[in-house]
Amino acid sequence: MLSRYLEGEIGPEQCAEMDRHVAGCARCKAECDSLRRVLALCKSEAREGTVPPDVQKAVQRILLSLQGSNPT
Ligand SMILES: [Zn+2]
């Protein structure tokens, strides 16, 4: 489910969706504190509807590592 966020831009809307997923997905919740931390950054760093590129990269890096070890 989260793999679709690996392509394209990650904006505040995408971060909110991932945030909801992580909150409702036992596996993500248990295994991905780092994802939740970076999603919190998405919220606090978003400006005018966009998330800074370094934050987007951080999200995608975490998604990649999640996907590699633990497909969701
Ligand atoms: Zn999940």
Structural class assignment: mainly alpha
Share of helical residues:
55-70%
Task: Let me know the largest β-sheet.
Answer: none
Give the termini separation.
6 Å
Residue windows where pLDDT falls under 50 for at least 5 positions: none
Q: Whole-number radius of gyration? A: 11 Å
Please report which band the strand proportion falls in: under 5%, 5-15%, 15-25%, 25-35%, 35-45% or over 45%. Answer: under 5%
Overall body shape: globular
Give the names of the bound compounds: zinc ion
Tell me about this structure.
It is a single chain. The chain has helices at residues 12-24, 26-31, 33-45, 53-69. It has 72 residues and is mainly α. It has one domain (2-67). Helix 1 packs antiparallel against helix 3 and helix 3 (33-45) packs antiparallel against helix 4 (53-69). The mean pLDDT is 85. The structure holds zinc ion (ZN). Zinc ion binds at residues 21, 25, 27-28, 72.
Distinctive features:
single chain, 72 residues, mainly alpha, 68% helix, globular
Blueprint of the fold:
Blueprint lengths: L11 H13 L1 H6 L1 H13 L7 H17 L3
Helix pairs in contact: 1-3, 3-4
The structure holds zinc ion.
Short description:
With 72 residues, the protein is mostly helical.
